[in-house]
Every structure is written in C-alpha cells, then in structure tokens.
C-alpha cells in the first residue's frame, strides 16, 4: 500500500514493494500523488518494472538517460574525462538522439543515425562503437533511474550489419609514406601554427595518444631521466590512478623542451585533442593524403621502436601495453628495413 504524506504544501507519494526499489515523488495535490502511486502499483502487481513515464512524470529522453549515466559514473568516482573518446561519443549521441523518447526508439531510428554518421565519414567500426556505448548507457542508466528501458541496440544490430553499416575493428596497417608526415608537419606549421606540427611530430616519436599529448605538463618532466609522467593512462581494468613514467624517445624529448612555457595550466602542448585531430584531417585533405589518421602516429612510433631494435618489453614501457596481443596491433614493420639490422638503428645511439 502506498504511503501518501503531506510535506508542507506538497504531497509525497512513497511506494515500497519487496523485491523492487522504492519509488518516491512529490506532487502539489493529494489526488495527483494518489494517481501516480496507483500507476506504479499497477505495474508492480503485473510483475513488471514501472514504465518510465510513470516514474519520471514525463517522457524519458535519450539526453536524460545519458545525463543519468554520467552522474552515475561520477558518483562511482569514474568521471568521464572531456578529453576522452567516450566523452565525444556521448556528446554525439546526445546531439543526434537526445530529444527522442528512449522508450520509443526503434531499429529504424538507429538506422537513420547510422546512415547520418556514415555520410559524415564515420567508418563501420566507429558507428558500431557509438551504438555499443548507447547500449551500455541504457543497460546501466535504466536501473539507476529505477525504470526498465528496452535495449533497441540489440534489436537493430542485425539490420545494420546486413546493410554493412557496422564492421568489426580491424588492425590498421597505415603508416606515413614517402614524405607524407613531413608534408603534414609543414602544412600544419604554416596554416595552423607550429604547436600543432610539434604535437603531431611528438606523437609519432613518442607513441603517446592524442589525449596524453594534450595533457602532459612541464611539471611532470624528469629532465635527468628524460621521462614524462602520463597521468591516468588508458587501461581496461583501471580507469583512474594509472600514472606511468614514460621515456620520451627519439626527437620527442627535444621537441618537448623546445615548447614555450607560457600556458597558464603548465601544459606542454596547450591544444585541444579534438582540434588537433581536426587540423590533422585538414592537412591530409589539403595535401591529397588518403586514409591517414592522427592515431596512426602511435602506430608509426611503435613500429619505429621495433625497427630500431628494441624488444617487446622495452617497447611496452613506452607504449604502456600490458599484453603482446594488444601491442602487436600497433606494430606495422616494413620488411625492407630489417636489412639495416637492429644494432645499426638504435634510436638514442
């Protein structure tokens, strides 16, 4: 039986049922509180979780669900960093789907979203990751909001796979060829500023991710050991506190030391990761360079280390990988380079 209690000028309805979370909502009149409680109890009597519209008192929008997911993550001490890919994926989902009722999403709705992303240039793997994140949001935010949300992503995937809008992640083998990187660096320096060119070159030399490049600070340098402290480095099992001292290889150390120390936050490369990616794409488009991405600089740096004769444990100290299965995805060796021999190509010799 629902409890209807007057609180000041308002009325609070509280529904408790064994095996279910408690449901509580405040209304301006007793009649409204009683009607709401009856709807909740009717669903519980039928053995189902209350409908979202009953619990929320309004349509449950995709944007509201995403906000709840972010709130839940923050409460658990796992806030989503605004430099992460996850942050931008959620922003995109909210922009395109945020005003829709999550309870009435259909496979056709997600088909439209996937087609839009494809028209924008997103690949099948990126679109698949977008929908995987939406599925995760629905799975966790539903219980957090005390409602049952149908996971339309599961229903939509067969259709999207059939239309070849989704694809599994493949191992990229693209590396800069025949002066492409030099051309990109020159274009960036001339058209966007030397800091962008230096950030890209440092990424190719150091193997640092774009989010790491854009957040490392001068105070985190160990100039005696030529190391930089990368905070909260990406790890599938440890989201926070995974700080690593990383050796800056090749020219990376000299590039870092050459940067002006005028950023108020002490960042070595005071640029936004999304802007860095955008300008890299601009450079490739202007130069007619096809299918080269900023993240390929991590592949480039990793491959250079192996070509220079470093062994797997040594390279892993630079890239941060824990397993060879993951590290080898970032390794694209050129067979012809093996003729030089490992001893002849040590980076710091």
Short descriptors:
15 helices, 3-stranded antiparallel sheet, 349 residues, 6 strands, elongated, mainly alpha
Tell me what the structure shows.
With 349 residues, the protein is mostly helical. Helices cover 48% and strands 7% of the residues. It has 15 helices and 6 strands. A 3-stranded antiparallel beta sheet has the order 1-2-3, covered by helices on one side. A hairpin with a 4-residue loop joins strand 4 and strand 5. Helix 3 crosses helix 6, helix 4 crosses helix 6 and helix 9 crosses helix 13. The C terminus is likely disordered.
Structural class: mainly alpha
- Rounded to the nearest angstrom, the radius of gyration is 26 Å
Number of strands: 6
| Beta-strand residue percentage | 5-15%
Distance between the termini: 79 Å
**Order of secondary-structure elements:** EEEHHHHHHHHHHEEEHHHHH
Largest sheet: 3 strands, antiparallel
Number of helices: 15
- State mean pLDDT (0 to 100 scale): 84
Can you tell me the residue ranges where pLDDT is under 50 for at least 5 consecutive residues? 343-349
């Amino acid at each position: 039986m629902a409890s209807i209690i007057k609180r000041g000028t308002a009325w609070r309805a509280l529904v408790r049922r064994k095996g279910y979370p408690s449901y509580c909502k405040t209304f301006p009149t007793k009649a409204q509180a009683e009607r709401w409680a009856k709807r909740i109890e009717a669903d519980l009597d039928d053995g189902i979780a209350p409908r979202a519209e009953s619990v929320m008192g309004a349509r449950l929008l995709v944007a509201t669900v995403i906000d709840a997911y972010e709130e839940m993550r923050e409460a658990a001490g796992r806030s989503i960093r605004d430099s992460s890919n996850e942050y931008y994926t959620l922003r995109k989902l909210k922009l395109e789907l945020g005003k829709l009722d999550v309870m009435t999403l259909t496979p056709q709705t997600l088909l439209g979203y996937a087609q839009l992303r494809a028209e924008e240039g997103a690949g099948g793997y990126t679109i698949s990751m977008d929908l995987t994140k939406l599925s995760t949001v629905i799975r966790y935010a539903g219980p957090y909001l005390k409602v049952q949300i149908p996971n339309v992503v599961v229903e939509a995937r067969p259709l999207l796979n059939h239309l070849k809008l989704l694809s599994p992640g493949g191992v990229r083998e693209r590396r800069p060829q025949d002066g492409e990187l030099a051309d990109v660096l020159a274009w960036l320096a001339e058209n966007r500023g030397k800091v962008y060119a230096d950030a890209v070159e440092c990424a190719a030399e150091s193997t640092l991710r774009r989010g790491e490049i854009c957040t490392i600070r001068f105070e985190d340098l160990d100039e005696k050991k030529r190391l930089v402290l990368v905070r909260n480095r990406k790890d599938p099992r440890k989201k926070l506190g995974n700080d690593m001292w990383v050796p800056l290889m090749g020219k990376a150390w000299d590039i870092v030391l050459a940067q002006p120390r005028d950023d108020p936050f002490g960042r070595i490369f005071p640029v936004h990761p999304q802007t860095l990616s955008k300008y890299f794409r601009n450079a490739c488009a202007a130069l007619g360079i096809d299918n080269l991405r900023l993240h390929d600089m991590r592949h480039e740096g990793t491959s250079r280390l192996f070509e220079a004769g470093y062994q797997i444990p040594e390279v892993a100290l630079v890239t941060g990988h824990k397993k060879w299965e993951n590290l080898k995805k970032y390794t694209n060796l050129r067979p012809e380079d093996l003729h030089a021999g490992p001893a002849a190509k040590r980076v710091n010799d």
